[in-house]
Amino acid sequence: MHNPGLRIESIDIFAIVAGVGVALIAFFGCCGVYKENICLLTTYSSVLIALVIIQIALAAVAFLTIGDKHYLEAGIRNHLKDMYDDKGTNKEYMDILSKMQTYFECCGVDESKDMYAILPNGYLMNSCCEPKFADNCRIATAYKDGCQAQIMKFLENNFKIIGGIAVAAGVAEVVGAIIAICVKRNIMSQQNYV
Q1: Residues 163-192, buried b or exposed e (16+ Cβ, 10 A)?
Q2: Across all residues in the chain, what is the average pLDDT?
Q3: Which spans are transmembrane here (predicted)?
Q4: For 8-22, how does the pLDDT look when each residue is reduced to its tens digit (9 = 90+)?
Q5: Distance between CA 119 and CA 165 in Å, rounded?
Q6: What are the residue boundaries of the structural domains of the chain, listed by start?
Q7: Phi/psi class of residue 40: alpha, beta or left (left: φ > 0; alpha: ψ in -120 to 50)?
Q8: What Cα–Cα distance (Å) separates residue 18 from each residue in 26, 58, 87, 99, 106?
Q9: Mean per-residue pLDDT for 169-173?
Q10: Rounded CA Rg of the chain
Q11: Is the pTM of this model over 0.85?
């Protein structure tokens, strides 16, 4: 069976790897300029250009994923269901769910009445309710919206901002590569005169 969440996880992992790559390769750029080393500057500019190409591919996948709203909703729904299913045994999931429900003022996957938000004692998680009702959180006092819908609204509202940040990072990388190439050429021309 195809896992709709796989593509979403792949995007996350891909973005993290690209970010770590940029941080590591920045070392080559700094050392290349400081030591006036042509090899390091060439490596730096080449890797930056490769990362820009990778980020363009990532952006294309992200646009396709966000464009396929039903696919994205299914992925989010499956991840939320898995987290709610494991909330009793996984403290990390419980913390994430609590923070998410508080931030988005939501409860459960689709609504507070769904079985995912209900704890074994019949109460809801404290974060399903406003702070004044948290100690006795029941369906009647819980947030009415499900978390899946709230996350989708957040993504739809902030997708342009996220895209703008990604474009700005790509432009900065291209500028960095151009500067590295210019510095490299300057060093090469100075070495030719000596």
Answers
A1: eeebeebbeebeebbebbbebbeebeeeee
A2: 82
A3: 13-34, 46-66, 161-183
A4: 556 678 778 877 877
A5: 39
A6: 5-87+159-193
A7: alpha
A8: 12, 9, 31, 27, 32
A9: 86
A10: 24
A11: no
